[in-house]
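Suppose a colleague, Dr. K., hands you the sequence of a protein chain of 214 amino acids and asks what its three-dimensional shape might be. Before reaching for any lab equipment, you can write down a predicted structure in C-alpha cell form. Begin with the sequence itself:
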Amino acid sequence: MSSLTVRPSTGAARRDAVEAQVLTAVEELLAAGESYVELSVASIADRAGVARSTFYVHFADKTELLIRLASTRTADIFDAAHEWIDTAGAATDVVDLRASLEATCRRIVADYRTHVVVLTAVQAATGYDAAVADYWFRRIDTFVERAGERLAVAQSAGLIPADVDVTGLAGMAAWAIERTVSQTVAHTAPQSDDALALTLARGLWLMTFGDATT
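The predicted structure, expressed as C-alpha cells, is then:
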C-alpha cells in the first residue's frame, strides 16, 4: 500500500517567494539611496524581477508594502524588547538584570543597523501616510501596554518605587529606544554601535531601576 506524502502548496510557496523578492528589492533600493516616497511600483517590480500585475496580486499599494516590510524587518527588534521586559517583570531581584539589558540593547542596535533604511522610511512615512502611522504607533503602543503590565509586577516586588507611573515609564522607554537608536544608527558608523548599546542600557536602567541596589 503506497503512502501519501503531504506536500506544501506550490501556490503558497510561490506566493511567499514572490513577496520575499519584492520586500528584498525595496530594501535594496532604499539602501542604494532611493527615497521610498519617490519609488515607483514599476521600479520595485523591475528590481524584484516580477511584472507590475504580479506586484498588485500581492500588495494593494505601496502603503501595504511598507507595512509588510516593516512588520518582517522589525520582528526581531520587538522580540528582543519583549523578552527582556518579560524577564524584568518576572524578576524578584536585580541580579543579572543589568547584564541581560545590555545584551538586549546590543541585539536591538544590531537589528536596527541591519534594517536602518526600512526604519527610516517607516518613520518618514508616519508623517504623511495615516495608515503607516496607525500601524507603527499601534505597534509601539502594544509593546508599551505589555511592558507596563510587566513593570507593575516588578514594582510590586519592590524593584521600582511605588510612586512611579510604570505605564508612562514604559512609553518613555519605548520611544527612547525607537527614536534614539534609529536616528543615531542612521548617522553614525557601525563602530559606534557598542557604545550606543551600553549608553542606551545605562539610560534605561536608571530610568527603570534607578533606586534599586545593583
